[in-house]
Specification:
5 helices, 99 residues
Length: 99
Amino acid sequence: MFLLLIEDFGIKTAPESKREELLVANATESAACIRRVLAGEVSPARDVVLLNAAAVLWAARRAASLPEARMLAEEAIDSKKAAETLDSLVRISQQVNRH
């Protein structure tokens, strides 16, 4: 077992006062937060998404280092590919639910 720190990804730890921005009350607020992140809003929520995506990319050996994996995740968000993928998944799930 090993320990990964946020700084290993090339991201600075958010101040305690900013961490409250991560709190959502319900699924609607959560979806809105996700949409803001995928629209490119810089926030602690984006950092969490980048950390999770980078960890998966690194574990899947799509990147040689954690900072490189973070950059791939940033590129997916900033190029709007991540938002396009989410939109596709939403369309597919809505089609399946209609049948």
